[in-house]
Amino acid sequence: MPIAQNPLSVEVTLPREEIALLKVAGYLDVDTATELQHHLANQLHHGRRHFLLDLSEVPFMDSSGMNIILRVYQEARELPGSVHIISPAPAVRRVLDLTGVSITVPVSESTEEALSRVDAQPEGPDVPEV
Question: What is the pTM of this model?
Answer without folding.
Answer: 0.87
